[in-house]
Design goal:
- This protein is of the alpha/beta class.
- It contains 5 helices and 10 strands; from the N terminus they run E-E-H-E-H-E-H-E-E-H-E-H-E-E-E.
- The strands form 2 sheets. Strands 3, 4, 5, 6, 7, 8, 9 and 10 form an 8-stranded mixed sheet that branches.
- The longest helix is centred in the middle third of the chain and has 14 residues, at 81-94.
- The radius of gyration is 17 Å and the shape is globular.
- The protein starts with a strand and ends with a strand.
- 37% of the residues are buried.
Length: 229
Amino acid sequence: MNEKNRKRNLSWKDWYPSVMPDFSTIEVGKSPYGEPNLETLELFRKLPRKSDILDVGGGDGRYALPLAQMGYNMTVLDIDMLHLNRLQINAQAVLSNTAGKITPVLVDATEDFPFHRQFDGVLNAGFGYLIPPDQLDLVFARMARMRILKSGGLLVFEFATNRERLDIDGKSLIGKQEYIYTYEEGLHVLQTLYTKHGLRLLPPLIKTIHFEVPYHLHNDLIITHGIKR
């Protein structure tokens, strides 16, 4: 994946990545972050078509696009306008008239969400695992609170642990301020968060992600999902 330096917005948290994809080198409709995990998509099939799903940190639509193709209405939050612009370009290119709607919202997901509505499902697959444990609780609470997630609603959280990410020269692509969870720590943190914030945690899915092209990436991915009580 070609990446370039980003001019850091001073309001962004220290752990937020300082590099961004060069979208000019990526085929429209494709994500520089790779294909979505089918296991995560399958979890949302529990929801009826036309359900409303909130994708927190959804960026260029890696998950929002296939979920919309499955018939779900997606609200995508992201802090970076370049990612949301790419989301709209991708949506125009790949979504049919029968797909669900996609609504992009520019917002820092670590702050209060700029709306008061409930969703049938909430997804975080993009940044939660970058956040130190002492800050993650507040972010998780915003996604799980009753005014956002309906009773009986589904919350899915992808959490990459034991992360390695290197460019073709072997230089780390992980920011100095990004937190790196071990598998054991990540699993414990997630179990604690789901219980604390009123969700019935279902057995997590575990998947090792590893590839060498176009760059080296390894992580032990925890896909947690739970139902709001």
